[in-house]
Request: fold
Amino acid sequence: CVLVGTRVSEGHENYVTAYNMLTGIRVGVSRCQAKMDRALTPTDFGSRHKYTFDITGNELTPSAKYDFKFKDYAPWVFRHLRQLFHLDAADYLVSLTSKYILSELDSPGKSGSFFYFSRDYRFIIKTIHRSEHKFLREILYDYYEHVKNNPNTLISQFYGLHRVKLPFGRKIHFVVMNNLFPPHRDIHQTFDLKGSTLGRELNEEIPSQNPMCTMKDTNWLRRDMHLQFGPLKRQIFLTQVKADIDLLSSLGIMDYSLLVGIHDLSRGNRDKIRNSILSVYDPNVSHHQVPSTGVGESNAHLLRQVVNSTGPVSLDRSCNRLPSNQFMERSNFMFYSDDGGFQATDEMNQPANHIFYIGIIDLLTKYSYVKKAEHLWKGINHSESAISAVPPPEYANRFYKFIETGIKPNHLTLKPVPMFKQQ
Ligand code: ATP
Ligand code: CA
Ligand code: CA
Reply:
């Protein structure tokens, strides 16, 4: 299940990897950022910069706690992408690397990827397979163009692509991306939707015990869930989904999901789901230091106090502060501008009682021969609409239809318990 993290601090089995990732990002990103801005050139998309870190340091890299190599891919392209995503360069580095604290998710996907949150919960580092890494480099130009032409795109915002190589030869590829969910709001229900039903069910016992888990298509249908958007928001949202999946389909991508987190304004933050997450960042912060807030009140300022209270560790003083408004960049995006999300509306387009946090995630699966084989195999026993491994255009169509029929302006009730018992 998502959102339950383990703090990665010294002694944790992945501490060295996390330390190396963050050190590499800090040096690589600040090196590129220190230069005068310039227009991108075609070679920027294929470029890579190599850094060798060791305990003594050299003229290119400062000394580090461990020996490792770091590769920064297409740094200029990602610099420009971060600009398009309205990220302040200094904020990015401070949030990610001013203290070497991440929290690791208990492997939420089947793929074996690891997920880490930055300490302010704003960024996610996802380790990816070598083939996904290669694929992102292949599609980077199209991705960049799409982001440029679609300022309100719903697809994952990639901020960096890197590789760490440990002394004994292991290579770890990873991306940095946006966390769709805000730190200051409880997410009462989460769904990962692909538009197919086969194998797309989370055992109902899990949500009844852990409301923070991520449910799937079948759980969504069983609860009669919908995205509560009136005609105006429906139209804007569907137009963007269509533009985004047209890109994914044209690039031969499938297996992506619509990630939907729902905050019920009438419940507010009283469940204190966020509090347990915040405590992950600092063991010195006990739960009572992060009071839950009532309806409509944002506790972002409290989060800031808590995070700041831990004091500086590893960056120089000029970088000790956290961004003054950590989520300001979100206000630039149509779908993330209602308190970090997209607020429900009724049939009269009037604001309703929920905020949706939505994005299209897991974009790096190419419809390769493996998926083709899965399609042939599963296709023998199941109808096309049920299996998830279908060619990209079919995948996109089915995905779109599922979302289109899943939007209704009707009042939404989040049912916390399953509607019927599993057989
Ligand atoms: P698989 O390939 O088995 O589906 P994966 O390892 O590629 O898994 P993802 O599908 O990218 O992982 O993500 C798994 C889960 O992690 C999602 O269902 C969601 O709960 C959470 N997650 C992923 N990306 C984000 C994001 N940008 N913001 C918030 N949560 C996310
Ligand atoms: Ca996935
Ligand atoms: Ca995946």
